[in-house]
Each structure stands twice: as structure tokens, then as C-alpha cells.
Design goal:
The protein has 382 residues and is of the alpha+beta class. It contains 10 helices and 14 strands. The strands form 4 sheets. Strands 3, 4, 5, 6, 7, 8, 9 and 10 form an 8-stranded mixed β-sheet that branches. A two-stranded antiparallel ribbon has the order 1-2. It has a two-stranded antiparallel ribbon with strand order 11-12.
Length: 382
């Protein structure tokens, strides 16, 4: 990563383009597939997979998100909930990164409330017709394989499907003008009677509860991304403070700078230990959704503080992408929000420890109002 990816990432980040030249180097790490055993996958422990994720994020957050979507979401879904035939057909190519995957759950009107998705799957002879929209789908514009979720019109339950690039009625377009994870090609997906054959329906997904099985593992990996980002920022700041001089002395000689550096290091150590503990609980089969949500929420919040301190320590150079801290500062923002916003994850944990659900409005009727910007806002009438 440091040899082949680090030298080019700022160029691609500025242009908001994906570094396809780096895919062979990422493939050589042999981490795609994570904990999956067989089918050409590495069969890592959860902790080993998480450590690999953090080290990729330490060099570049966009590359770590590319791997997260491809491996911890697309491949993990196929491995956990796909048929044997589907695993044999897709996993080896995905593990080598000969094929690229994406994972399509979020919709324009359903982000945190993902289980209410509107995309439909209608049973027809030989397969299914998919209709609807997806949004914020990483790797969407160039993925060979999409794992996509839709509501079965007969059962009203969530089903999963494998949709291949080039399927008639399926198109993906890039979301422009992002300020973070600019190398990640997030896309809008539109399906208009996109036909998926029966063999490409995922047999293990028959409700949103099945989808949550994948999210439980992926949330662990997401919780390790901010650890890597924060470590990378700390490394840069530590070196910068020792090398740059003002008033005849290194910046590291100033007490206030040392305090900030120590606060950053303390955050990283605490984040690392929480992430390590979460992996161990998962491996013991004892992890709860609230524990995973706590780790993701708390780590991203602490990482936010850490990269903000790093930006301060670099002064004017802290707003230049060339010095990488500004890039990390921006890249952390979408990670703070995806795979459950900080608030949603906090409320998942709060529900677990209090036994009281507070995610949805507690009383009155919910009214949907269209704003002048074309967005939808939910307001509660008491």
C-alpha cells in the first residue's frame, strides 16, 4: 500500500476518480474474502481481517472502503447466504479481484430506515423483475456483480439478488461533488424491469433479519477503519512536529503540541482496544448488535476528534491534500455516517441497555412533507 498506492492517491482523490492501476496491488494483499474459508478466499480470523482493514485505511480511506464494500459486504453475503453454486461461480473471481462487487441496500428515501426499502422484486417465469432505485452504492459504476436487496411483492419480505453488469434495465450513475472518500465511486442505481434469473436469487435472504447477519460482521470492519485513519494522521503529525521548526525549535518542543499529540495517541489506543475486544467477543459467539454499534459509533467519534487535532497541528498545511491530514479529515466524515450514523448506532446500543426503543418517533402520526429542495422530511404531529 505505501509503495504503490500512497504515491498516487492524492492525484486520484483530487480528480474523484478510482485508481484502477492499484487494484492488482490490493489483490496481492490477499485479504479479499476476509474470514471466508475456501473458494480462493484467505480464511482469516475476524481480528486479522480487521487489522488488515485498519492498515489499508491507514494509507488511504477510499481504498479501505473499496475493500469493505467488495469483501465485507458483497463477498460476505454470497459466502453466508448464497447457494453452493453461487459461491463456486463468483467467490474465486471476487477473491482475486478479477471481478469487482458492490452491495445495494440504501435507497433515496430510506437510509437509516433501510428495512422499509421500496425496491420491488416481482416473480415471473424463470426469474424476477426488479424495479426501484438505490443510492450511495460504493463501487456501483464499475462493479461486475451487485448484491441487491428488494421487497418480494408476494411475501412483502426482503430478498437478495445477484445482478450482473450489463443487465438490461439496470443502470448506475456516479454521484458527483462529494467532499469525502472521493476515490470511491458511489452511485445511483435505477432498475426498470431488470430481469434476474432464478439461479441468481440468494436463497439465504428471506427477511431483513438475514441482511442483518451480514451487517453484524461488516460493522466490525467499519469500526476498524477510523482506527487506521487516525493512526495514519498520528504518524504524519508526529513526523511533522519533529521536522518543522518555528522560533528556533521543533514544533514538538511546544507543550501544547505535545498535549495534542498525546491526546491523539490516547484516542487511538482506546479505539484499538475497543475494536480488539469486539473481535474477541464475536469470535466467542457472544457479540450483540449493541456492542457492534457502540464500537462503530464511539470509534468514529474519537477518530473525528483525533483528525481534527491533527489538522490543527499542521497549521496551514493541514488544509492541503498533499499533506494527507486534510484528506483524512474529509474522508472520515462519510465513515462517521455510513453503516449506521453515530446517532442510530448510539440508539441501537441504548435500546439494548435500557430495553426501550427510541429510534422511531414515540407518539402521534408521522406526516411526510416535501421541501422546496425536493427532499422529504418527517415531522410528528402530537
Amino acid at each position: 500500500m505505501e509503495k504503490h498506492v500512497a504515491p498516487v492517491m492524492t492525484k486520484y482523490w483530487e480528480k474523484a476518480e478510482f485508481p484502477f492501476e492499484c487494484v492488482p496491488h490490493i489483490s496481492s494483499l490477499m485479504v479479499a474474502g476476509g474470514t471466508t474459508k475456501g473458494y480462493g478466499c484467505p480464511g482469516l480470523s475476524v481480528l486479522s481481517s480487521a487489522l488488515a482493514m485498519s492498515e489499508i485505511a491507514r494509507v488511504d480511506a477510499s481504498c479501505s472502503t473499496f475493500v469493505l464494500v467488495h469483501s465485507s459486504l458483497c463477498m460476505a453475503t454470497l459466502a453466508m447466504l448464497g447457494s453452493e453454486e453461487q459461491k463456486l461461480k463468483y467467490l474465486p473471481g471476487l477473491a482475486r479481484l478479477d471481478l469487482i462487487g458492490c452491495w445495494a441496500l440504501t435507497e433515496p428515501g430510506y437510509g437509516s430506515d433501510a428495512s422499509s426499502l421500496n425496491t420491488t422484486a416481482k416473480k415471473v417465469e424463470g426469474g424476477w423483475l426488479l424495479n426501484g432505485q438505490k443510492r450511495w452504492i460504493g463501487n456501483a459504476t464499475f462493479a461486475d456483480v451487485a448484491v441487491l436487496f428488494a421487497r418480494n411483492t408476494q411475501t412483502n419480505q426482503i430478498n437478495g439478488f445477484i445482478v450482473k453488469k450489463g443487465t438490461p434495465g439496470y443502470r448506475a450513475t456516479k454521484i458527483e461533488n462529494k467532499i469525502g472518500l472521493r476515490m470511491v465511486q458511489n452511485g445511483d442505481i435505477v432498475m426498470e424491469n431488470a430481469f434476474v434469473p432464478d439461479k441468481d436469487r440468494l436463497p439465504g435472504i428471506n427477511s431483513f433479519a438475514d441482511t442483518n447477519k451480514v451487517l453484524a460482521v461488516s460493522r466490525i470492519m467499519v469500526a476498524w477503519q477510523p482506527i487506521g485513519i487516525a493512526m495514519g494522521v498520528y504518524d504524519i503529525c508526529h513526523r511533522y512536529l519533529l521536522e518543522r521548526k518555528q522560533f528556533g525549535a521543533p514544533l514538538a518542543a511546544l507543550q501544547i503540541n505535545q498535549e495534542k499529540l498525546v491526546r491523539m495517541l490516547g484516542n487511538i489506543q482506546a479505539m484499538f482496544l475497543l475494536g480488539w475486544r469486539l473481535c474477541k467477543i464475536y469470535e466467542a459467539g457472544k457479540m450483540t448488535p449493541g456492542q457492534a454499534s457502540l464500537c462503530k459509533a464511539w470509534n468514529t467519534k474519537r477518530a473525528r476528534e483525533t483528525v481534527a487535532l491533527g489538522r490543527e497541528l499542521l497549521g496551514g498545511n493541514g488544509i492541503l491534500a498533499d499533506f494527507l491530514v486534510a484528506k483524512a479529515f474529509c474522508d472520515l466524515e462519510p465513515i462517521y455516517s455510513y453503516e449506521g450514523t453515530y446517532e442510530i448506532n448510539a440508539l441501537v446500543t441504548g435500546r439494548e441497555i435500557t430495553k426501550i426503543a427510541a429510534i422511531k418517533p414515540s407518539g402521534g402520526k408521522t406526516k411526510t412533507t416535501a421541501t422546496s429542495e425536493g427532499l422529504v422530511r418527517n415531522t410528528t404531529k402530537n
